[in-house]
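User: Here's a structure from my thesis project, written as structure tokens. My advisor, Dr. K., wants to see whether a designed sequence matches the one we expressed. Can you design one independently, without my sequence as a hint?
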């Protein structure tokens, strides 16, 4: 297998985005570029030079319809409904024919190639003062889910140790053994993924003035007014045009602050660097 360059990863994920865009346009499904992809569209008219993935977001109703109807000759959708071993509460549209990845922390047991992430936008509490507590619950679930996933996929190797610290080591060993039993069972499922999905349905999207992402929450409280996703317009990204939500400026400022300012050079690194390596099949 030949390792993919960063630019090859970008262009391949762009191919997936074009396929998804065509499907959404034909089926009147609302979506927007999201996260670093949205930032790249505004600041760079394409990928952030060091970015290595693509994110899009859809209002929950559009997301559910997309997940249940998306078809493609080249790519397929992965989420907990299509694969019980998938480790996230959102979806991915991925390749399985031409690319593959390696990692210590696989996303599922069957494997996949280059992907784009598809996030649902979900409703938040109607009262702003209630949002921080609600959001902290989402962050706690994300923390627990990540801890379980790390244990399922790696764990520390069982070791012997002197009497000093024996209790801590026994606890670690038992935890490691528990994770490995789950990992090698036929259909393991991270219980906190389902808890995240359940939480997403607490407030119906559009029934309150606010929305945000609960399936991959930021480390600080981030939410947006419903009016920010009232409409979408086409915007240049690389060699094509894709949809961005009308309130992109407010969204980017809430997430990144002065988003037109480049980060320090030390922070200009691919998000997945060190965690995943992609190869041509």
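Assistant: Designed independently from the structure alone:
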């Amino acid at each position: 297998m030949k390792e993919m360059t960063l630019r090859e990863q970008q262009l391949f994920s762009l191919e997936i985005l074009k396929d998804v865009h065509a499907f959404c346009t034909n089926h009147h499904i609302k979506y927007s570029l999201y996260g670093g992809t949205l930032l790249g569209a505004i600041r760079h008219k394409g990928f952030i030079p060091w970015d290595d993935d693509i994110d899009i977001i859809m209002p929950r109703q559009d997301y559910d319809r997309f997940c249940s109807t998306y078809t493609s000759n080249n790519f397929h959708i992965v989420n907990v409904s299509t694969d019980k071993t998938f480790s996230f509460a959102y979806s991915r549209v991925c390749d399985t024919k031409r690319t593959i990845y390696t990692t210590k922390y696989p996303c599922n047991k069957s494997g996949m190639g280059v992907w784009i992430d598809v996030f649902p936008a979900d409703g938040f509490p109607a009262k702003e003062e209630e949002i921080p507590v609600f959001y902290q619950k989402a962050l706690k679930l994300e923390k627990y889910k990540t801890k379980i996933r790390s244990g399922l996929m790696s764990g520390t190797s069982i070791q012997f140790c002197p009497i000093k610290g024996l209790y801590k080591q026994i606890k670690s060993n038992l935890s490691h053994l528990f994770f490995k039993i789950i990992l090698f069972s036929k259909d393991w499922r991270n219980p906190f993924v389902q808890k995240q999905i359940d939480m997403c349905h607490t407030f119906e999207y559009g029934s309150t003035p606010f929305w945000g992402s609960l399936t991959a929450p930021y480390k600080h409280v981030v939410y947006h007014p419903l009016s920010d996703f009232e409409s979408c317009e086409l915007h240049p990204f690389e060699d094509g045009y894709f949809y961005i939500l009308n309130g992109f400026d407010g969204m980017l400022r809430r997430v990144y602050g002065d988003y037109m300012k480049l980060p320090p050079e030390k922070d200009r690194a691919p998000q997945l660097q060190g965690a995943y390596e992609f190869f041509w099949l």
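When you compare it with your expressed construct, this may help: Helices lie at 6-26, 35-43, 60-69, 131-153, 166-183, 191-200, 248-256.
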